[in-house]
Amino acid sequence: MVSRKDSNIQRLKRHRRVRAAISGTPERPRLCVYRSLANIYCQVIDDVSGVTLCAASSNEKEFAMYGGNCEAAKKVGMAIAERAKAKGIENVVFDRGGYVYHGRVQSLAEGAREGGLQF
User: Fold this and answer.
1) How do residues 18-69 score in pLDDT, each as one tens digit?
2) Which residue, 20, 5, 1, 38, is CA-closest to 98?
3) pLDDT tens digits, 63-106
4) What distance in Å separates the CA atoms of residue 107 and residue 75, rounded to the nearest whole number?
5) What residue ranges in the chain does DSSP mark as E strands?
6) Residue 66 CB contacts under 8 Å (≥ 6 apart), including other chains
7) Residue 57, strand partner residues
8) Quick one: which of 23, 26, 32, 80 has the most CB atoms within 10 Å?
9) Are 76 and 40 contacting, i.e. CB atoms less than 8 angstroms apart?
10) Measured between alpha carbons, how far is 45 from 54 in angstroms, rounded to an integer?
11) How many Å from the N-terminal Cα to the C-terminal Cα in the chain?
12) What would you measure as the largest C-alpha separation in the chain, in angstroms?
C-alpha cells in the first residue's frame, strides 16, 4: 500500500525550521502568511513582546471577491502594507509560513512591496 505524507505536517516542519532562524523585532517585525483553500491571511508581528501589530485577510468586508486567488492575495498584500505604514512600520521580515514562494504567497509579497513595505 502506498502511503502519502500529510502535506500540512510537512509544511509545519518547514515552518518550524524557518522560524528557528527568523524573528520579528520592534524595529523590524515579522510579516507572517497563512494560506487556506478559500482565503489568505497575514499579520505583522512583534515576537519580542508577542503582539500582533496589524493584520489583513481576504475574508474581510472590504474584499467582496473570492479570496483564494492571486488577485485577492495581491490586494491583501497592499492592505497590510497600508496598515503597517499607518503604524510607522516600513521594514519587515517576510515569513512565508512554510509555503512555497509561488502563486498566492508570491502575489501577497509583491502587493506588500508595491504598498511600500521593504523586505
Assistant:
1) 999 999 999 999 999 999 999 999 999 999 999 999 999 999 998 888 999 9
2) 20
3) 888 999 999 999 999 999 999 999 999 999 999 999 999 999 99
4) 9
5) 30-35, 40-46, 51-57, 93-95
6) 38, 72
7) 41
8) 80
9) yes
10) 7
11) 45
12) 55
Contact between residue 33 and residue 99 where contact means Cβ atoms under 8 Å apart: yes
| Whole-angstrom distance, CA of residue 96 vs CA of residue 105 | 7
35/28 Cα distance (integer angstroms):
23
User: In one letter, which amino acid is 99?
Assistant: Y
d(CA 88, CA 80): 12
3-state SS assignment for residue 93:
strand
Position of cell 505536517? 9
- Cα distances (angstroms) measured from residue 110 to each of 8, 10, 44, 76, 105: 24, 25, 16, 10, 9
